[in-house]
């Protein structure tokens, strides 16, 4: 609404005026474009993809919202947009998103639901809203797109599992400069290249901030020179980003420096631990150094757990000691390596881990009662046998027949068989078809089954946890 | 739906009647008397794994209630239920359900009862008393000494013997022939040697060996080897050789491919370090066990799997350097 009012005025903010109108105009996010376009294309074909919501994440000002709007603009989608302040309660979500989610496209014009800053949702106060979203997403008839700076917050976990995750990276200095130059041309503005470079540098990959800075200087002074830029932007507060935090830890000369790096970092300690977990081996190679560093991280997580779950928050201080100085001064013997830092892939790994564990539990739940063993015994004793049958047998026949015998789902077969899954699934399908051709056996089986089902239904609520699974 | 298709042989060849249960003559004789009398006290079945305890409980129920016995049976597994509270709720609900026409009680089978804490067992004892009018409990345990005395004294005690070699081999032979599996008779004896008197384990090994082709002695040993992911040992050895990065890659692969939890993996490592295949000085095994225990403790404390195991691998690579592992 403030947007419309401002647009009516003369001085349109440049971030609105130069907002990308086509997907091509969104710069430097090729991977995100590719993922998102494929996803939208599935919707456009009238076939909702398996994940019906997408979560675009990355630092501010890198084009998350712009990309969605550009896409909608180009393909004639209607965008129904909410931002953080709009969707506090379950009721609000139900009213706006719930309605839009089940709206039939009008005259073939599609609808995109865009929820900005989903990580702004408060864990407790807005829990109802999140719950409501989680309920709506699997059923929505229209694509739901959310944006977040930090998608790894705990409260977003259930939501994350339902979403296609689309990463956006900070924009490169060159790309930001290119955009700034274009604006200068269009505004017929005198701009020094050096000034644009400084603006781009200070923006740390945030194009929105860079454009705002450019406009601030241009509107105040009618031109953009290096001296002006330096004078005006100098006071801007520098955040200690993750890269600098890591440097300050790994190259600390004194314990207090390493600790300060942790406490001043813009990242929270859990994120920081994840980064260190993946980057310690990139900086240290000597086994004893590695050991000391990981032992410090390991103990840090123990303290963190105690601080969190027993709410002894004063213990946090020791967490900082261990992840800062603990890692910094673990290196006593080896030299420090020159390798670059990498983004932690652990978080992605945790998601796939949760997924396989879910499938494993599901198989245990299905089979253990039939074999008369506990789920724990199933996992320890029977599962290895199944792995051999599914992965090591020269012929897929036994695995295929077992899959049919236990009604294993695709994902369960995939878990058990790994790379051989396709072969087994194909054969199982073939056997299933062949069996259909033998109507006698089928009919006999079916009628017996029906009889039993009827009989069972007539007894209200049969007790026994395994009954359903046994006959089901 | 499933009968015509393949099942795991442990399920397919599970005895349905008391008469089919081998090598537990004494037990079977006494259980049959309960069937005849259509009455029984609470029972406690004790004995090693794979000797037919759970099977006997089901067979008994089937003979008491007939083919659709499952509706009169509540089957619980102490290791899977989350606490005595959940068990209490399920028992309460079940006790209220309808009773069979001509037998005045229903049966609750509580498997792995020896995994319950003493406190939970006390609560269980009260449950047994509270619902004794409508229900009978069959408690199943590997180690009867872990069952508290007040429960033991309320139950008729049945001890299940480990199966004899000839019984296991005869059963394996019967299954192999019925399934049309080619086998080397010596291989069946090898299976017995490995599984001892545990019929479930024996049948599982037979089926996995059959999946590999002809059941030979070699195939049997191959199954035993495959049953432990070889990456566990590779991971340990790689760490000991000082290649932390590669060891961590193995660790993550194991967790993702097999869905193992940090605790599963720690337990496997613990087992593996006492294996002869891991060539390190004997005193180093003790050292490692000590640190593995520490890491296990930290995991139980609830902290991050990946970091705890990384710490363990980093420590192993330091130790390997000291020991000069090649």
Structure description:
The complex is a heterodimer of chains A (472) and B (326). Chain A is an alpha/beta fold. Chain A has 4 domains: 2-167, P-loop containing nucleotide triphosphate hydrolases (Rossmann fold, 3-Layer(aba) Sandwich), CATH 3.40.50.300; 173-233, Helicase, Ruva Protein, domain 3 (Orthogonal Bundle); 242-344; 371-437, no CATH class. Chain A has helices at residues 2-8, 14-17, 30-44, 64-75, 90-101, 127-136, 157-161, 173-186, 193-203, 207-221, 226-233, 242-250, 255-264, 269-283, 287-309, 316-328, 346-371, 375-392, 397-405, 410-417, 421-437, 439-458, 467-471; strands at 53-57, 78-82, 111-115, 144-148, 163-167, 190-191, 223-224. Chain B is α/β, with parallel strands linked by helices and 326 residues long. Chain B has 3 domains: 9-159, P-loop containing nucleotide triphosphate hydrolases (Rossmann fold, 3-Layer(aba) Sandwich), CATH 3.40.50.300; 165-227, Helicase, Ruva Protein, domain 3 (Orthogonal Bundle), CATH 1.10.8; 230-323, Zinc Finger, Delta Prime, domain 3 (Up-down Bundle). Chain B is built from 15 helices and 5 strands. Chain B has helices at 9-12, 25-37, 53-65, 83-96, 118-130, 149-152, 165-178, 185-195, 199-212, 217-227, 230-240, 244-258, 262-272, 282-300, 305-323; strands spanning 42-46, 73-77, 106-111, 135-141, 155-159. In chain B, strands 2-3-4-1-5 form a 5-stranded parallel sheet, with helices on both faces. In chain B, helix 2 (25-37) packs parallel to helix 3 (53-65), helix 8 packs parallel to helix 10 and helix 14 (282-300) packs antiparallel against helix 15 (305-323). The radius of gyration of chain B is 24 Å and the shape is globular. The N and C termini of chain B lie far apart (55 Å). At the A-B interface, helix 14, helix 15, helix 17, helix 18 and helix 19 of A face helix 3, strand 2, helix 4, helix 9 and helix 10 of B.
